[in-house]
Amino acid sequence: MAIARAWSVALFGVDGVVVEIEADIGHGLPGVQLVGLPDAALHEARDRVRAAVRNSDAQWPTTKVTLALSPAALPKGGSGYDLALASAVLAAADAVPAAALRETVLLGELSLDGRLRPVRGVLPGLLGARKAGMRRAVVPVETLEEAGLVAEIEVLGARTLREVLDWLRGEGELRSAPERASGTDQPAGLDLVDVLGQPEARWALEVAAAGGHHLLFTGPPGTGKTMLAQRLCGLLPPLSMDDALEVTAIHSLAGALSTESPLVVSPPFIAPHHSTSVPALIGGGSGVARPGAVSKAHRGVLFVDEAPDWGPHRLDSLRTALEEGEVRLSRRDATVHYPARFQLVLAANPCPCAPARDNDCTCPPSARRRYLGKLSGPLLDRVDLRVRMRPSSAWAYADQGEVDDTATVRARVRQARERAILRWAAHGWRSNADVPGPALRREYRIPRRALNLLERGLDAGAVTARGADRCLRIAWTLCDLDGAETPDAAHIESALGFRDRRAA
After folding, report:
1. Residue 234 backbone zone (phi > 0: left; psi -120 to 50: alpha; other: beta)
2. What global pTM score does this model have?
3. I need a surface site. Which of 207, 252, 326, 386 has the fewest CB within 10 A?
């Protein structure tokens, strides 16, 4: 009887957990027994691995083979264990040295002819392997760029099982990961100068970028709602390396990475179709839930176009993510947490017929109320800025002089964000939108004389308590954009203007 060990990684949300794979070759009829809570895809690995070993000029044991995956209580799924299973069996059969597998994580799916195929989640898997003390990883060459983003661990790439076996025997070399780029420069994107007119909406977009606020555009078709939303990411600062790795890990789990340049260095822009289901929006699936659109938009922008067409059920499912910055998904095998700290941009027409001008509307008042009523009060209460777009007119196409481009506005946004970070650094908050209400009312109180207008709004029921907190956050953002020390009455008045319910 012989036994050998190899290591792979199981994904538990965005966390990688190292899995020890033990292969035992004992007495009995030929066969393969796989234990350790494997799913259907992992059960099928027995036949894939056996065929890949035979077609790689290696000998599969002719006796009973038992494969155990530990921790045994952790559900395991997918085809990423194939390479580790084959290596463990051949090490137990003395076809390759077992010592070569120490502190080495093996990831990859095997085809029947021994080719190594890419799998999802390489980046979060290797981050978990590094945390567990692993020193080396072997991955398919297609994911070598992605795996090379993980520092402090040696990453090697292979195309076939035969290459891996030759490397384990000391008879060949594997490809090394390329050098990781030292910076996270933001590539050029869409420019604000392309948007005609709409000075109020442009200003709201700048305020949203400076403070991390959620935004609602309401207006006729063709006024630039989608164009403005698409340009918000260009105003945001580039992702730090830690944020870039976090966002890239989520996109790796979703299978949405580019093989040429996998690192996500710019805030992502996610715009789901209005027919998207709640599981696709929030995350879901059987067994262990996968990330949805809100997690793919982490540290970026989630754009919901034609928001009333989505219906209250899907829109209201965003509320928890907006408030907490993460989603918790419970399925049969596990409860997982996915980060979802994004900026929400909603766009809506003023009514179902969506005329170019309000006086051309043919909808009865009840239809208009019912249409915009699909945007529930609790959801709108979490949207900081509401802007009514101007109808398109000839003056917008005329020469209006110089308008600020994206680079100019981004510079102002960066300065405002730096002021906010300096103010909130001791608390760990990164933008004004992250600051909880109690801190705004106690530690960073605005002078009472500046709050008279807000108090009147609360007394009249024009603003809710949550809405008042959001007005304070907007006021701090306006203060940062002005370079002032503390918000004044003018900032509060402007903040209340952004909360006007008539804009919805």
Report:
1. alpha
2. 0.90
3. 326
294-325 residue pLDDT tens? 999 999 999 999 999 998 899 999 999 998 99
Say which CATH number the domain at 55 has.
3.30.230.10
130 and 32 fall within a common domain: yes
The residue count for the chain: 504
Residue at 230: amino acid letter:
Q
pLDDT at 182 over 60: no
Measured distance CA(270)–CA(295) in Å, rounded: 10
| Whether residues 154 and 300 fall in one domain | no
Instruction: Give 444-469 pLDDT, tens digit per residue.
Output: 889 888 889 898 888 888 888 888 99
As a whole number of angstroms, the distance between CA 201 and CA 208 comes to 10
b/e for 471-491, b at 16 or more Cβ within 10 A? Answer: bbbbbbbbbbbeeeeebbbeb
Please check whether residue 321 is in contact with residue 327, taking contact to mean a CB–CB distance below 8 angstroms: yes
pLDDT band at 210 (very low <50, low <70, confident <90, very high): very high
Q: Is 115 helix (H, G, I), strand (E, B) or coil?
A: strand
DSSP codes joined into one string, 348-399: E-SSTT--SSGGG----HHHHHHHHTTS-HHHHHT--EEEEPPPP-HHHHS-
Cα–Cα distance between 458 and 465 in angstroms, integer?
A: 7
Q: Is the pLDDT of residue 281 over 90?
A: yes
Question: Cα torsion at 431, 215, 273, 366 (round to 10°)?
Answer: 150
**What pairs with residue 220 in β-bridges?**
none
- How many distinct structural domains can be found in the chain? 3
Cβ partners under 8 Å of residue 294, min gap 6: 281, 282, 283, 302, 318, 321, 327, 340, 342
Q: Is residue 396 part of a domain?
A: no
CA atoms within 13 A on the CB side of 401: 1
